[in-house]
Amino acid sequence: MGILDFLTGEFIDVIHWVDDTRDTMVWRFEREDHEIKYGAKLTVREGQAAVFVHEGQLADVFTPGLYMLETNNMPILTTINHWDHGFKSPFKSEIYFVNTTRFNDLKWGTKNPIMLRDPEFGPTRIRAFGTYSVRVSDPAKFLVEIVGTDGEFTMDEISYQIRNIIVQAFSRVIAGAGIPVLDMAANTADLGKLIATEISGIIAEYGLIIPEFYIENISLPPAVEAALDKRTSMGVAGDLGAFTQYSAAEAMTTAAQNPNGGDGIGAGLGMGLGMAMAGQMAQTGPWGTAPMAPASQTPPPPPVEHVWHIAENGETKGPFSKAALGRMAASGELSRDTHVWTSGLDGWQRAEDVAELAQLFTVLPPPPPST
């Protein structure tokens, strides 16, 4: 290469970046010895920003457009101006391209269950999973706080830190929200907004924003879910006795259709279910009749007998047992119009109007007809 070609090359430089990796957030333009020539063309495309670093200090941020690096406020780093260094410039400059588009479909989730106090279940644990998107909002701050001198910075290098911030904010918001676990699915949109607001301040310190945040699933531990499924099944079954008989009959029918299946397992299962059905019928009676009480069954306790008071001539008498009232009715001391009261009655009532005492007068003749 001749001296003219070399000098011409020193004045021609095109600086641009085309990314097809879909996960690169920052890429440093590689130039030999980091020398940027005078008059170089800097192309910044939509969805990008270019950060100019001169002698280790951030000099400027370029938004989308075409720039000629030849003005006085730009470092003129051409080896032509430094013959005494043998075409080796002592000034060093770097250009970092920052991807300002959204990085979508990023996953987050709780590595360990989160403890909270549920108003219905009491202390319980939950897990949560979802997606989010992130975008660089301040290229200069992102370069200073996160990237540093990394020549190629990808989303994987910061996604773990963002997930930790999200999980911490989720734990704090969900524990203080007071929303029952069974109602969380209906409030995921509102919870997502609260969490996005909670983490926006922390993420902004990195020069990032989270345009979208979604909670896809909130789940209980497997043991709690199993208990909840049993509770739901009981509610769906309704009459557990009828449901048990129906399930046993279905199992017996299936076993009878395959008596040789499983080396007699089906027959044994049918016999076991038949015995269970027999025990159930012994409790409910054959063909749905009244239950047949076993001989050793303990009889129920006797009913509590009421004691009665009588009101006559503005005075009360008693208490009397029902047997005593029967004798008084036979002797004529207690009539159908006598007012009586016992615990449970709403005020004084005529003896004839009380179902428990009306039978005392059925064995007596009615009063004679008036003449």
In short:
With 371 residues, this protein is α+β, with helices and mostly antiparallel strands. The chain has helices at residues 3-10, 139-147, 156-177, 188-204, 222-237, 240-257, 265-284, 322-331, 355-358, and strands at residues 14-15, 24-28, 40-44, 48-54, 57-62, 65-69, 93-99, 103-109, 114-118, 122-136, 152-154, 208-219, 308-312, 315-320, 339-341, 349-350. It is 33% helix and 26% strand.
Number of extended strands = 16
Structural class of the secondary elements? alpha+beta
Measured on Cα atoms, how large is the radius of gyration?
A: 45 Å
Shape: rod-shaped
Approximate helicity band:
25-40%
Q: Give the uncertain stretches in residue-range form.
A: 3-12, 75-90, 262-266
Counting DSSP H or I runs of 4 or more residues, the number of helices is 9
Biggest beta-sheet profile: 5 strands, antiparallel
The arrangement of helices and strands along the chain is HEEEEEEEEEEHEHHEHHHEEHEEH
Mean pLDDT: 76
| Major sheet: arrangement of strands | 5-4-7-2-11
Straight-line distance between termini: 153 Å
Q: Estimate the strand proportion.
A: 25-35%
